[in-house]
């Protein structure tokens, strides 16, 4: 019995703790005669993959098809990775070691393989795949190494020896150093002799690591140290190789297979020119638009070189092809399976992993039916490497949990992956490769189309990926021409013009999840939950055309004729404030665009008699953005699309527009211009202190933009009380004169607190109508005291043209008077509004249900009714609601009466100013 079989794990354990004891392990793994065990000529029944991720799964799948039992190894960081689930057995390795070191621990891997009767080890690519000592350790332990013999791995892994082998085989090489160099001074001497540019490459590794191109002599020292440090970290040896750098080459590599009997075949070439910092991103087989003579010579040289070194198993011979001179140069041999082996498999139909295993068992190429005359390429294949890297941040690797994963599949598409599924954890410790996607078709452009389609179908959320960048590459015209060089990415910054990631569903889920766990991000007025009701939207017949409304007249005749039509209209006109001031007063302005859009078509079809819909401006603009996280402009556009026949009205705060400070005049003008273009028709312009310059500037901005100007007077005091003479009739008539003189199309009376009593309404409106019989008058009030409908009826008798109301279920209290009540009261009178009470009730039913969804903001939780003391404290409607909410939220609910008294005192201290909701900050 051999010493290997007698060796106990207890005796091995102390020897396997460090790689320094590796030579001792080799001693124990010798046979009794001292010769390394012969591993050829036996069928493999159990195979370990000394790797992780996608390549491990690729090999496991081939083994399963060949009825070979599989063994996986995994690091502590890879406990949840899919490759360990795909194997028949899996074992933890490198406990307490750094993530990468775990997969480089040769003694432990060999011990594990022996303990579990593993007959062969496949190294995959990366990690130990090009470490000759690993291949030798396998051979010494009597384990088949799926790859070239150790001496070939060592020779081809040494770039200097590989270069000499190429020279001996009469294959052209780039001028380079005769051996590894270990100092920047040696690199400097080479540059002085051969000139610049040069490329520094790791002498004992590949994959783009430890590579630097140097174009200036003064940069040699820094780049040598960086490249050497990178090589040391990646391959355990910082020695460098330096050679002349070929400008703008194509990177062409040839796939080869060799058996143990001296036979070598090629499986044609791959074009790997799409690179970033020497890392391949896209690979193509065969190389498109390659001169047939060059192709034939390349393939012949690759086979000749491999034969000259007795190459066995799979490998890749890499060349740089100088398109300007038509010459190509050998650069290196990768004595392993390549990441991009897939494209070769797709065009030749040869399973390279299966072939590797059979060749390692001692089969010949002819046994595998792999003679050169039988290997033919069919069509083209393209591989893209989807990585968890962010192209917008210099391809910075990303990590985290994949929240959504949907792959692009279909005819001609192959997907090789590992932990690519929803819920997978992307580790920061290893290579960022997530998925390899391979597209195959009869011609190159068709393969590119399939690739582009597949990439577009991918949905990966939770981590950043390079998919947008890859799509830009695949659809780029130069790429589609089939001729790109290694500078392609550097010379096309347009490849980095990446569309912003939307991930709308994920953002919404995160938002909802955050609210469910942490509660709403905005302060609520109540502790009441929203109702579970689904508001019923009234049915309408879309088969009918949308009826004509007042907006049709406005668009046809313009603001001046529009105002004349208002005055000649025989009945009272109605503005509906439900979509703006009503919910601002009752529900803290929290009604969403979604709920407005649902009822919009009903208004357009069933209530075209409405003069206007107030749905924009005031606090809605600010609240939409800050609390609802909606765009007020999008709300306007969407409502306009579904209600084209009724004018939209907004509240404009003069020089404040929709903000809380004075803005430069040009901003106000531009704002009004854009608002008109997006659907606002009528602008109610006011100033919180009736300051005429601000009012007139706003009016001019609206007029310039082509909107209907409704210059408005803010009402305060009590005209019916002769003792209150600050805001008397003369005050209001002087303001009216100025607004009419400034060219207002409609005169607005804005009663912010609901202070306008019926008798005062008669006094004011009669006086204005007597002096200005041709100017339309529009009255806005609040119902805080409960006398709102009485005020509107008095106004209708006194010559008002338009009044503001809210639908019944959104009226009363600090909102506007009831639409249904006013419509019913004016039925069969000269001021009949023309609205159907049935239609109003149906409209109200929708809002009664919808209002219950906003219970957390419902003012009636604390405000059970209106209060006539508003005639004393004069608190504006929206401000009244806010003050009460703030009092309760601060634990001062029982002190609200005192708050109102203090408000009255503060008003008097300020000189009894005009009071508007926006003054609440005072």
UniProtKB/TrEMBL annotation:
Residues 572-841 form the Pyruvate carboxyltransferase domain. GO terms for cellular component: cytoplasm. Residues 43-494 form the Biotin carboxylation domain. Its cofactor is biotin. Signal peptide: none annotated. CDD domains: DRE_TIM_PC_TC_5S (cd07937). Keywords: ATP-binding, Biotin, Ligase, Nucleotide-binding. Pfam families: Biotin_carb_C (PF02785), Biotin_carb_N (PF00289), CPSase_L_D2 (PF02786), HMGL-like (PF00682), PYC_OADA (PF02436). Residues 165-361 form the ATP-grasp domain. One of its GO terms (molecular function) is ATP binding. Coiled coil: none annotated. It comes from the Eukaryota. GO terms for biological process: gluconeogenesis. This is Pyruvate carboxylase.
């Amino acid at each position: 019995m051999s010493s290997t079989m007698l060796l106990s794990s207890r005796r091995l354990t102390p020897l396997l703790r460090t790689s320094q004891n590796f030579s001792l392990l080799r001693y124990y793994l010798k046979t009794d005669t001292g010769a390394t065990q012969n591993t050829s000529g036996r069928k493999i029944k159990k195979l370990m993959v000394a790797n992780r991720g996608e390549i491990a799964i690729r090999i496991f799948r081939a083994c399963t098809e060949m009825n070979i039992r599989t063994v996986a190894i995994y690091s502590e960081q890879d406990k949840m990775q899919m490759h360990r689930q795909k194997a028949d057995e899996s074992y933890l390795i490198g406990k307490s070691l750094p993530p990468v070191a775990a997969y480089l621990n040769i003694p432990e891997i060999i011990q594990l393989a022996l303990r579990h009767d593993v007959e062969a080890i496949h190294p995959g690519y990366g990690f130990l795949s090009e470490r000759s000592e690993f291949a030798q350790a396998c051979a010494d332990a009597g384990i088949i190494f799926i790859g070239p013999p150790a001496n070939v791995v060592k020779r081809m892994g040494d770039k200097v020896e590989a270069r000499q082998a190429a020279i001996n085989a009469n294959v052209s090489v780039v001028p380079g150093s005769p051996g590894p160099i270990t100092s920047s001074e040696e690199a400097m001497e080479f540059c002085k002799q051969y000139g610049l540019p040069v490329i520094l490459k790791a002498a004992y590794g590949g994959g783009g690591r430890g590579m630097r191109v140097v174009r200036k002599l003064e940069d040699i020292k820094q780049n040598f140290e960086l490249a050497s440090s990178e090589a040391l970290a990646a391959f355990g040896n910082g020695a460098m190789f330096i050679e002349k750098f070929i400008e703008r080459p194509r990177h062409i590599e040839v796939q080869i297979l060799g058996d143990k009997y001296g036979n070598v075949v090629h499986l044609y070439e791959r074009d790997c020119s799409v690179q970033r910092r020497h890392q391949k991103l896209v690979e193509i087989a065969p190389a498109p638009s390659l001169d047939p003579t060059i192709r034939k010579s390349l393939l012949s040289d690759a086979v000749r070189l491999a034969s000259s070194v007795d190459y066995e198993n799979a490998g890749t011979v890499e060349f740089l092809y100088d398109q300007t001179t038509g010459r190509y140069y050998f650069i290196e041999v990768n004595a392993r399976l390549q990441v991009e082996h897939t494209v070769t498999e797709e065009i030749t139909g040869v399973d390279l992993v299966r072939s590797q295993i059979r060749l390692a068992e001692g089969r010949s190429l002819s046994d595998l039916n792999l003679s050169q005359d039988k290997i033919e390429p069919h069509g083209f294949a393209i591989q893209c490497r989807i990585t968890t890297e962010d192209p917008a941040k210099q391809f910075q690797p990303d990590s985290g949990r994949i929240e959504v994963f949907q792959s692009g599949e279909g005819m001609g598409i192959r997907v090789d992956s590992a932990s690519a599924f929803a819920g997978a954890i992307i580790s920061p410790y290893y290579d960022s490769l997530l998925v390899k996607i391979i597209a195959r078709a009869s011609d190159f452009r068709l393969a590119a189309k399939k690739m582009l389609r597949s990439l577009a179908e991918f949905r990966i959320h939770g981590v950043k990926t390079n998919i947008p960048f890859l799509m830009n590459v695949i659809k780029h015209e130069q790429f589609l021409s089939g001729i790109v060089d290694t500078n392609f990415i550097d010379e096309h910054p347009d490849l980095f013009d990446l569309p912003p990631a939307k991930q709308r569903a994920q953002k919404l889920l995160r938002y909802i999840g955050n609210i469910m766990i942490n509660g709403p991000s905005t302060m609520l007025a109540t502790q009441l939950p929203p109702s579970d009701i689904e508001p019923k939207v009234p049915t309408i017949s879309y088969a009918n055309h949308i009826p004509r409304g007042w907006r049709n007249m406005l668009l046809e005749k313009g603001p001046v004729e529009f105002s004349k039509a208002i005055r000649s209209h025989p009945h009272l006109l109605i503005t509906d404030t439900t979509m703006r001031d009503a919910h601002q007063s009752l529900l803290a302005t929290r009604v969403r665009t979604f709920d407005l859009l649902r009822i919009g078509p009903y208004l357009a079809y069933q209530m075209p008699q409405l003069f206007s819909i107030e749905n924009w401006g005031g606090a809605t603009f600010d609240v939409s953005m800050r609390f609802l996280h909606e765009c007020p402009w999008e709300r306007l556009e969407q409502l306009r699309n579904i209600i084209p026949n009724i004018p939209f009205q907004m509240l404009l705060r003069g020089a404040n527009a929709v903000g809380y400070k004075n803005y430069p005049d040009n901003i106000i003008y531009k704002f009004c211009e854009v608002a008109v273009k997006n659907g606002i028709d009528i602008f109610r312009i006011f100033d919180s202190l009736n300051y005429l310059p601000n009012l007139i500037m706003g009016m001019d901005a609206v007029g310039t933009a082509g909107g209907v100007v409704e210059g408005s007077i803010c009402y305060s005091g009590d005209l019916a009380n002769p003792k209150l003479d600050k805001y008397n009739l003369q005050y209001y008539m002087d303001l009216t004169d100025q607004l009419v003189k400034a060219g207002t199309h409609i005169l607005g009376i804005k009663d912010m607190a609901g202070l306008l009593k019926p008798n005062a309404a008669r006094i004011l409106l009669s006086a204005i109508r007597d002096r200005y019989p041709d100017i339309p008058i529009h009255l806005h009030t609040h119902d805080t005291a409960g006398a709102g409908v009485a005020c509107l009826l008095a106004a209708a008798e006194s010559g008002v043209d338009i009044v503001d109301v809210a639908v019944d279920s959104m009226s009363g209290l600090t909102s506007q008077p009831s639409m249904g009540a006013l419509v019913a009261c004016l039925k069969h009178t000269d001021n009949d509004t023309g609205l159907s009470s049935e239609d109003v009730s149906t409209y109200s039913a929708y809002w009664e249900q919808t209002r219950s969804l906003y219970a957390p903001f419902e003012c009636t939780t604390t405000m059970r009714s209106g209060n006539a003391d508003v005639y004393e404290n004069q608190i504006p409607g929206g401000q009244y609601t806010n003050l009460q909410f703030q009092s309760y939220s601060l634990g001062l609910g029982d002190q609200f009466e005192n708050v109102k008294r203090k408000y009255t005192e503060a008003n008097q201290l300020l000189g009894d100013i005009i009071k508007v909701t926006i003054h609440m900050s005072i």
